[in-house]
Hints:
Layout: E1 4-7, E2 14-17, E3 22-26, H1 29-35, E4 40-44, E5 50-54
Amino acid sequence: MTSYTGGCSCGGVRFAIDDYLYVLACHCNACKRRTGSVFGVSVVVEKTASQHFRG
């Protein structure tokens, strides 16, 4: 099992996940607006596989 860590650029949110179920890259208008980009990326994880350290 692989562990991943991440967070936002300002450091206000930090998290770790043990594993993920799947990753989505979406090009719909809602995801474009949400991210301000040409696509949005979402990672789906089990609730028990994630830990929030900050934020």
